[in-house]
Amino acid sequence: MVHVRQSTVIDAPIEQVWSILRDFNSHDRWHPAIAFSEIDGDEPVDAVGSVRHFRLADGSELREQLLALSDKDFRLSYCLLEAPLPLMNYVASIRLKPVTDGNATFWEWRSEFNPPAHRREELVRLVTEGIYQAGFEAIRDLLRERPAASPLQARSPVVAPTPSAALPTVVSTMSSGQTARTRAILVERYGGPEVLQLKDIALPPPAPNEVQIRHTVIGVNFIDVYCRTGYFDLLRPPGVPGMEAAGVIEAIGSEVSGLSAGDRVAYACPPVGAYCERRNMAPDLLVRLSDDISDETAAASLLKGVSASFLLHDVHAVQAGSVVLIHAGAGGVGQLLVQWAGHLGAMVIATVSSDDKARIVERLGAHHVIVYSRENFAEAVMRLTAGAGADVVYDAVGNDTFGGSLAALGIRGHLVSFGQASGPVGNWDIGRFASKSITISRPNYAHYTDTPAKLSPHVERFFAALRQGVLKIEPPTRYSLSNAGDAHRDLESRRTTGALVLVP
Questions:
Q1: Segment 257-306, tens digit of pLDDT
Q2: Which CATH superfamily, name and number, covers 169-302+474-503?
Q3: Under 8 Å CB-to-CB from 9, ≥6 apart: which residues?
Q4: What's the burial of 392, exposed, middle or buried (CB within 10 Å: 0-12/13-18/19+)?
């Protein structure tokens, strides 16, 4: 498989560039290689699934299909259905991002395809120079000649540039050293959701070993609650909470390599500071996002997906036939554990607090769902397993469930206590565990993810599970950044299901 990626900066507002590119049938009005173009079946020019039939200047004909289009993210993708050239399995994508300094647009065009080995160099050069670089220059010509309000009202002749004149522009958004400002949620003292206040804070240029990220979506997790209340000392007031987000790199420190301005990235790691529009951070634990992983998916699920990966594969390796009890099965991590444990062949028993949540977990494939508000879950587990009990219990609830979790375990059972939404579990006599030879774990997220070597296998495993359909993630509940306090209130009151995100 060949991967081609070209990028440039267009000296025009992103809305103006996007108004041209989002029209799937506009290419004959700006690309020099295309002589004629039409949409099959009179479909709308921006309808996902529409097929564009076009003729090149040399007389050959092609057909392409629009696969995805997002006005919110300024992105589209398409595939080649028919072509005279052997560009097998050709899939391409276009994305635009605003450039921080000035009213310009960063444009990335990338594709992948399988060429015959003996024509590999020829076809890569054709795509790189004849399609992408020629297209970049043609759009520049069009925008210079057309009024901003109507860039496509009439066709304008353009001339294909020579390869030497069409080298891609390198993006550079490094600050001149002047400290900027950004909006952030600041915790000036430990306390309830009311301490989450939106403030303007200073944002210096990134250090030589840092990148600056503009967040597009920010994840909300229960660890953020622990930071806000001071239960975890990851945040020292005044400080900004948050350990998970997705966005775009806007500036690169002089010592950073392997990343570029315009790259889409996500992270789920300390140091805290994600509840903001922009931030600087070291790039070691950044995860580069492929086109099939949206910013919203990454911000809503990366921390939870990585957690589910090490909980199910490292802390306790779930095997086919295992009996697994999962508390808070309708929560963010709980939903992933339910689906993934079932895929591994386990018998999945989940607990929830209401019938509505029970229906959600049933749809995710749990074999049995217990509404613990009206049934003793430990007794129910023993009944469902004919007295054998669970092999492993995943418990993020804490105080309210810890004792029952011990009672629900079978001989040599394993209690994985990875959260305490209802409060600390208190003091327990370890001698009581000998009656079943119980093992108890209290895993710390950072100990499984604090280096690229540790983190990478979990990210790869999680993303593979998403791509294969093993895991399905419902759209998260969205809050504006200024309403972070509401998100925390809803999370703590267990009024939500699935993931929560903040949008700057």
A1: 999 999 999 999 999 999 999 999 999 999 999 999 999 999 999 999 99
A2: Medium-chain alcohol dehydrogenases, catalytic domain (3.90.180.10)
A3: 99, 104, 105, 106, 107, 169, 171
A4: buried
- The kind and range of the H/E element at 201 are strand 196-203
Reduce the DSSP state of residue 100 to 3 states and report it: coil
CATH code of the region 2-145? 3.30.530.20
Closest CA to 464 of 284, 244, 306: 306
What span, in angstroms and rounded, lies between the C-alpha atoms of 396 and 376? 18
The ranges assigned to domains in the chain are: 2-145, 169-302+474-503, 320-442
Q: What are the phi and psi torsion angles at 239 (to 5°)?
A: -155, 165
- The predicted-structure confidence for 196-247, as pLDDT tens digits, reads as follows 999 999 999 999 999 999 999 999 998 999 899 998 888 999 999 999 999 9
pTM to 2 decimals?
Answer: 0.63
Which whole-number Å values give the CA distances from 219 to 51, 132, 181, in the listed order? Answer: 36, 35, 22
CATH code, residues 320-442 = 3.40.50.720
Check: CB of residue 93 under 8 Å from CB of residue 291. yes
Q: Which two tokens stand for residue 144?
A: 């210079």
Cα angle value 388/391/396 (rounded, 5°):
125
Positions in the chain short of pLDDT 50 = 146-176
Residue with tokens 């009179």: 42
Return the structure tokens found at 278: 């922009």
Strand stretches in 287-420, DSSP E: 287-288, 323-326, 347-352, 368-371, 390-395, 409-417
Residue 171 has a pLDDT of: 34
